[in-house]
Amino acid sequence: MSVSIESPRVKPAPRRGVNWEKWGWLYMRASGVLLVVLIFGHLFVNLYAGEGVSALDFGFVAGKWASPFWQWYDFALLWLALIHGSNGMRTIINDYTTVPIGGTRLRRLFTPHYIFKTLLVGSTIVLLVLGTLVIFTFDPCPSGAPADLLPTFCAARS
Amino acid sequence: MSTLIVDAVEAPTQSSISDLEAGPPGSFVVTLIIRRFIPEIDEEPRWQDFDVRVLPTDRILDALHKIKWEQDGSLTFRRSCAHGICGSDAMRINGRNRLACKTLIKDLDPTQPIYVEAIKGLPLEKDLIVDMEPFFESYRQIQPFLQASGNPVRERTQSVAARERFDDTTKCILCAACTSSCPVFWTDGQYFGPAAIVNAHRFIFDDRDEAAKVRLDILNDKEGVWRCRTTFNCSEACPRGIEVTKAIQEVKQAVLRGHA
């Protein structure tokens, strides 16, 4: 009887779709480098430059967001940091929960793995949307607001 | 002489106690706490302690042999060459993956009990033996053999520098100490694991080999090199001193470049 040995030199089946693990890994490296610059710039301007931390108040933040430069600076900081953080949380969820196999789609959705991931993605999107809205629509002196609630530098107060 | 044999047969515990009392000069008694699991008897693994008289220069493997030969023959573990080459006796000793045949008693703290258990992340079969099949399966997947075209009449020559490129990863003995120390592998059995990537590295950076691209494609998988989070457990666990994490990083870079 002859024995046939399967050829070990099999070409792997080509992968379909986006290689999320690769891009996730690359994103962590790239955003990490940018975040080091952005975070230390943020800390320097807010806590050290000029009068230092004592100058930091509502008016200081309002002043910064009056300039498009700081709006886009904080926008980049928010998106890079939040996605960096949630990508890290994603790997932690992968570590501590098992990916469900079998069952219906709905069944699989109600396993710890997908419950955590849904919560993670949901909260990340909510925070990104709210944060972006605050950065670009911030108005320290909204018209029609009671004068006693407005900060002292608003025109309506004087 | 005959009384000694009778003693050993009738009261084995007596003889092991007297063995504990006397002993070669410089020897002392150390406690080994071993995680036992006999599938026919135990529902769950249990810890059992053994007192063994050892010399400071004895290895954990010698202590395990003494237990198996003199105290409890049911203790089960793998070992073959007993000199750190065959890679059979990787186990978790005091919470770290090591080879039992390369770990000396004096390098641990013999005043404290020494904990010995099977490596983690692979199915436990009996006592210190795990099912290595998932480990070897991912090893096979990276095609760990030279793939070169042509039909040379003499050996394929290689420069010293080209050989040096992958020298570190040729040292692997496939003991699974690295893979079973990897926290990603513990929870995600699909991950290739450090050992498979190390052995892929050995061929990817070999200039005689022509299948680097194939192996890089295999490791560019969802469960490939990207799952590595550089926790360095593997580098620390490797009994051959391979810089495992560095090798994995070099493979990642090669995947991004698209060639070795």
Automatic annotation (TrEMBL), chain B:
Enzyme's top EC category? oxidoreductase
Q: Does the keyword DNA repair apply?
A: no
Cofactor: record remark: Binds 1 [3Fe-4S] cluster.
The 2Fe-2S ferredoxin-type domain, residue ranges: 28-122
InterPro entries membership = 2Fe-2S_ferredoxin-like_sf, 2Fe-2S_ferredoxin-type, 4Fe4S_Fe-S-bd, 4Fe4S_Fe_S_CS, Beta-grasp_dom_sf, Helical_ferredxn, SDH/FRD_Iron-Sulfur, Succ_DH/fum_Rdtase_Fe-S
Q: Which residues form the 4Fe-4S ferredoxin-type domain?
A: 162-184
Catalytic reactions of this protein: a menaquinone + succinate = a menaquinol + fumarate
Q: Which cofactors, if any, are listed as required?
A: [3Fe-4S] cluster; [4Fe-4S] cluster; [2Fe-2S] cluster
Q: Which UniProt keywords apply?
A: 2Fe-2S, 3Fe-4S, 4Fe-4S, Iron, Iron-sulfur, Metal-binding, Oxidoreductase, Tricarboxylic acid cycle
One GO biological process term: respiratory electron transport chain
Record's superkingdom? Bacteria
Q: In which pathway does it act?
A: Carbohydrate metabolism; tricarboxylic acid cycle
Under Enzyme Commission nomenclature, its number is 1.3.5.1
Q: Fetch the PROSITE patterns from UniProt.
A: 2FE2S_FER_2 (PS51085), 4FE4S_FER_1 (PS00198), 4FE4S_FER_2 (PS51379)
A Pfam family per the record: Fer4_8
The GO terms describing molecular function are:
2 iron, 2 sulfur cluster binding; 3 iron, 4 sulfur cluster binding; 4 iron, 4 sulfur cluster binding; electron transfer activity; metal ion binding; succinate dehydrogenase (quinone) activity
Q: Indicate the family of this protein.
A: Belongs to the succinate dehydrogenase/fumarate reductase iron-sulfur protein family.
Provide the protein name.
Fumarate reductase iron-sulfur subunit
Q: What is the originating organism of this protein?
A: Amnibacterium flavum
